[in-house]
Design brief:
Chain lengths: ~90, ~350
């Protein structure tokens, strides 16, 4: 299946300037598996999104078709075929 | 002609300043704008200048980058320079210290991080290994967090495998076997914020430095208390007499001259401003027996603190002294603190400064 990942402009330098990345995954996947697939080609991007324990960084939000995954099953949230995964920084800092 | 590089890490980016005389400075455009820069190391060994930065995004976390061309380009190792091994079950929050080892150990760079951890690199700071001897120390569960976080902020390598570290709040620890085993070394350092007699560990040491002439002599600025050890950290005695306050964050030692140190006193932990709102460094030329107030060129109205790494010395002759404030002002002295000129003003709050005479 194909999943499209949308990235914030602040992370585009980790993907060669692209703010949208299409991934081909074998069958239904979780958010964690999508991020693993992304990490294989973009390890720096992965470190921006997840820390070394594998946890989503506190001020990074991930949406699957518009639903924030922390309100679902976190990284275990299922990503259906054709879904759009959006990574975005939360409102923080000053 | 000699060029001096001054790196200024702030809460919202890095500025690099250069000078031929350490009085007139040329300031770069900001690097990593809107990214916190809590640590800088300048490594001038091996005939090159490498600027190492610990940077941290509020959103996207911490990382370490380096530049070998004075900031024109920056390199970040793909896998990350500092990352806890999986079995540690921890993630780096902030890199507080990047400290090149001595000239006879080129390539060795030490790092101190939050959560409290010490790291060693053997490739000039591109990859660090966690110092497991300290991470696995049975005291670690009892080390607390200072107001700024739970950090190893001082890493002071010495001769023959000796390294002293200081942390908030655990105090000073020493290894003599290259990091395999560590012992607390806080005897004589106060801890008024803990009940009972001074504990073996738990002190909130803000910064330590090693004497240039006697590697067994150390200096510490504590959370109330200024101390010296003449026995490699085994015991500490107060050297606060003659200072306007025993509170502050900075402790600097002259890299050329034994017995010469600088501190930047603040009124108290409950009043973190320079005494009387007048910024001054205080220098001792006799290992803390007597102190001299130095304020020529420093502002007479200054209510911002100087943080523990927002002051440094270079290795010039005479030694240069640099201080930056949380108000974003940076001052440089080309004469060991006798007089200062302003390098920059109105920057974001200054977290760290590091200076080096370029090879």
């Amino acid at each position: 299946m194909t999943v499209r990942v949308l990235l914030p402009r602040l992370l585009a330098d980790c993907t060669g300037g692209r703010s949208s990345v299409a991934l081909d995954l074998p069958g239904e996947a979780t958010v964690g598996a999508v991020l693993d697939a992304l990490a294989a080609d973009h390890p720096v991007l992965d470190r921006r999104v997840r820390d070394e324990t594998g946890a989503l960084r506190r001020h990074v939000n991930v949406y699957v078709d518009g639903d924030e995954v922390r309100r679902l099953r976190g990284l275990a949230t299922v990503v259906p075929p054709g879904a759009e995964v959006m990574v975005v920084q939360s409102v923080a800092g000053g | 002609m000699t060029t001096t590089l001054l790196a200024i890490g702030t809460r919202k980016g890095l500025w690099l300043a250069t000078s031929e005389d350490r009085r007139a400075w040329s300031l770069s455009a900001p690097h990593f704008l809107m990214t916190e820069v809590p640590s800088v190391g300048i490594d001038v060994r091996d005939g090159r200048t490498r600027v190492l930065l610990g940077i941290r995004s509020e959103h996207f976390g911490p990382t370490v980058v380096h530049s070998d061309d004075l900031g024109t380009t920056w390199t970040e190792p793909e896998g990350g320079a500092i990352r806890f091994p999986t079995d540690a079950g921890a993630a780096v929050e902030r890199v507080w210290q990047l400290h090149p080892d001595s000239a006879d150990r080129p390539g060795v760079v030490w790092a101190g991080a939050e959560p409290i951890s010490v790291w060693r690199s053997d490739d000039g700071g591109e990859h660090f290994e966690l110092c497991r001897g300290l991470w696995d120390h049975p005291h670690r569960a009892e080390w607390g967090a200072g107001y700024g976080g739970a950090a190893a902020h001082s890493v002071v390598p010495g001769p023959d495998g000796t390294v002293h570290v200081a942390m908030s709040t655990g105090g000073v620890y020493r290894t003599r076997d290259g990091g395999a085993s560590w012992q607390p070394r806080n005897a004589g350092i106060s801890a008024y914020f803990l009940p009972g007699p001074a504990p073996e560990f738990g002190q909130c040491v803000h910064k330590i430095a090693r004497d240039a002439a006697d590697p067994r002599r150390l200096y510490a600025q504590n959370h109330h208390g200024v101390h010296r050890s003449d026995d490699d950290g085994d015991t500490w005695t107060s050297i606060a007499d003659g200072l306007p306050s025993d509170f502050g964050f900075v402790m600097l030692a002259d890299p050329r001259r034994g017995g010469r140190i600088w501190v930047v006193p603040l009124v108290a932990d409950g009043q973190r401003i320079p005494p009387d709102g007048r910024l001054a460094v205080h220098r001792s030329d006799d290992a803390g027996e007597t102190w001299q107030r130095l304020d020529a060129g420093l502002p007479t109205d200054e209510y911002n603190a100087v943080l523990r790494d927002a002051a440094c010395v270079d290795a010039g002759d005479p030694v240069g002294v640099y201080v930056g404030t949380r108000g974003g002002e940076v001052y440089a002295s080309a004469d060991a603190g006798e007089s200062f000129t302003q390098v920059a003003g109105h920057l974001p709050d200054v977290l760290c400064v590091r200076a080096a005479v370029l090879p």
